[in-house]
Protein 1
Amino acid sequence: MLRYAQDAAWIHSETLGFDREWYGSRGLWWLVRCVDMRVLSIARMGETLAVTTTVVGYRKVWARRRTDVLGADGQRVADVYTDWVITDQRGVPTRVPEEFFRLFAGEVGTFMPARVALEATPPDSAELRFRVRSRDLDPMGHVNNAGYLDYLEEAAVASVRGVALLQHRPRRYRLEYVAPAALGAELSGRFWSRPDGGIGYRLRDDISGAELLRATLAAAGLPE
């Protein structure tokens, strides 16, 4: 679902005239900062899905998109809110180009950037360690935002509660991307059960100890 949301965002941007060449000539790039996704029903192999995306907010260096995934019967399969930060060629956040504000003037408002409030990692948390593979990377040489969700789900299947949550619908994923992971990085992911019935997940660089990702997986409310 996150890969569908990412592809739809690029197609939308290209349709509006902001393709990769446009960004490349200006030394700009969008990076995902936070994801809030609900999986509401099953998408079966071979089913044709309808994916729609729209920009729902802007701030100085931020943009928020909502993506909806509908099944062949018209029912919502998933919805995704993605907070993006625009960066320059150094990878430093920079102001959203005025072209975007003019294009969406009067149509979108501001928003409060999402965060994942996660407690300290419990001492009895479980650990899953691995190395970043080339297939995990995006065009910037960092782990793709959807790749981190793969890491979370790999950890979830190692616990009874996690397996139950992965089978539950609706379920909700919240991920805050703190720092990038590059090819060959040794990572340590720790996960634990939370009082709300969900699981918490924290990913660190195994060498430096730097925090890379904070995330939660839990049962979700019904569609709005």
Protein 2
Amino acid sequence: MLGHPVSSIGRWLPSAIAPRLRWRTEADGWLLLGFDHIQGRHADLSTGSRDLPLIADAMSAMARDLAGCGAVADRLAPQWARFAPWRRLAKDIPADLDPWACDNLDQLIIWESRAVEVAEGDSLVHTDLHSLNILISDGRATVIDWAWSRLGSAAVDVAFLTARLVAAGHTPVAAVTWAENIPTWRSAPFDVRAALAVQVWGLWERTGRERPRPLWTKITPAARAVARHQLGLV
């Protein structure tokens, strides 16, 4: 596990956002990291949850405090360009792919290209926000497990979590309305929101087919619902 990315970005994470990295040591090819202990519970993303305003506050702080922070991490945009979920799905269209997606793959590929452009940025973004990576303690939300963090646009994390909210029972309208509480999303124009929603759907659509798990049967339809809403289709 030598060279785990958290070792290089831990010092950039403010204690108001994430557990503070206290020490690191290497032994037998393993990198060991010691963080502050947080006594808390996993976030509740369901409708009516009192955790939602706390999560919005944490995400607003992430966008503000991790912008241009100088952390050393891979850039997200080139990674997305290489993965190219919609372009790859179009080359070998799955028999069970959503009918609307089948009929509009050309448009989805265009939105995918736009997503690569708008994902570019100098903020440190988590890219894997879900209830298990958010701890609620002492009236605030703390974000853990930054192993998949990348440099990009802070709007990316909002796009991912919006789809997670739908998977937790929110309507797309309610999830997008919640996202308006976060300045980086509130100021994002239509094409940015739509492109990121289409990309999240594509990422989960392709990944779920390559690495099948029960998880994808829940979150991929949620991402599809958000993307269709952002595109004005529902």
Protein 3
Amino acid sequence: MHIFVDETGSFSGVGKFPSISLVGALIVPDSRLASLEKKYAKLRKSFPKDERGEVKGRLLNEQEIARVVPLLSEHSALFEAASIDLGLHTEQGLIAFQAQTAERMTDGLTDRHTESLKAQVWDYRRRFEAFKLPLMVQTIVTFEFFPRLIEFGIMYFSTRRPEELGKFNWVIDAKGTMSTPTEWESGGL
């Protein structure tokens, strides 16, 4: 199966209702991917695109979306998402959450752990503590989302297309490049 992951929203706008951000994933069976890509390419020609030539959901109208959904269904694709409305949160609450989460990263370390493992976990903690709030929120939403995404995809395809469970192909929309990754991409968290 192919799993395409992307996000939308700025993961900012704390206290400014509504301020919704989302991490979503489209799961497409290997056996249906080529056909889906071919049929979507025909639809894509008529869709509005941003300055880089990329189709963005925010640019699509209801009729254009209504043309994509049946195509995904026809190809046994699944969509799963996790969202947050930062308009319902406060900066103080997010700062406290970040501190508590960072504390939990290291509070279970003991002398029974190797020095290299402890150093690595402390390094991850310091990086996480240094994240700006939007990056911290996006990281948490993503990491909370992935286990559910994997469980959902496996359960769905195990009864319908078990052959799809032999290989997972992840395509995660990167923002940086291999030579200049973003802070989130290089964080190793």
Protein 4
Amino acid sequence: MDLPDISGVNIVLLGSFNPAIFHPIWFKTQNLIRAQEADDAKIEIIHPEVSSFSTDWCKIVVMTNRFSGETLSSSHFEPLRDLVFGTFSILEHTPVSKMGLNRLLHYKMPSLESWHGVGHLLAPKDPWKTVMSEPGLLSLVMQDKRDDPPGYTRAKVEPSSRVIPGVYIEINNHYEFKEQTGSSLHNFMEILKNSWENIINFSDKIAHHLISQGY
């Protein structure tokens, strides 16, 4: 089976942030990105309510309640992990309540038949045909609870908007501790530091299984 045509990861933290400090110059000053990367960064907005900028390999978007770092370059999955880990090792007192480690994959299907095959197998049409004339899968979400560490894994399957005919699969590995204490950020960073590769591999296993249904 072919590899995904577009392959990315996204790291999301929910909590309380000061968007204005998340400027490329701050990241350069803290030795989190190279000086040239900071100088060449494309800044969309730096504001007390939201900051957004991108380098040639990642995009950072920060709102007052959400931090997001994303890359669509498979060779930069680990550098993104290191960037986020380094950022919140410095901002170690940031209140953070939830974390999502997300895998983003777009697969170009070899034919319309195989593209439809994924939808037919994951969402059979027979139950719908008595009330719809041409039912088709637009979005399917399945969730599996996880106890240690606490949270869940959520898989979403949709038609791809980037490759046609294609399938988009997003695997959301969500982490949330019941007791919100000052150690929550530390716990999240330990997961990010020690389990990143396993999380990527686990997400890929799910995605590859799902996409194989169309072949």
